[in-house]
User: What shape does this take?
Amino acid sequence: MKETECSLENVTDRPWLWESFDPVRPELDAKFKTTLGRGVFGLLGKDSEWKAFLCYARTFLIPRDVKELQEHTREDGNIIIPYTVWSHEKGAGRAIINKVLSYARDVNVNIDRVVTLSPKTEMARKFHLRNNATQFRMNLKTVNFEYRV
Assistant: This one.
């Protein structure tokens, strides 16, 4: 998948696109994912098909679990915490991460760091390490991987 053939779109206000498809954190509902300071990005292909989705929160602290994510979410947070990523096409997960990193580098959004709240799975570990993240911290049930901004 070529990143140049896709665009990153804020789809927080369009839950019908993503609310029933999250394989990572299906227990978190649309209300949780759309609370002030949280949102959802979608990766739209040139063919008008959605290739991937990424749920995130903005915080000032790096959470160790979903409870801390909920407590630390702030609309003006300077850290983006991707807490779920899924794709419908090979390479789309990497593409959406790279698009979010580009978004974070934009001086108008005031983001200093991008640190995940990932499940403690081998699949998540391989995905983030392959995409140039470094392991920041191992938690009881999650792992934080950090991407350079």
Q: What stands out?
A: The first helix runs from residue 30 to 33. Residues 60 and 77 are 5 Å apart (CA to CA).
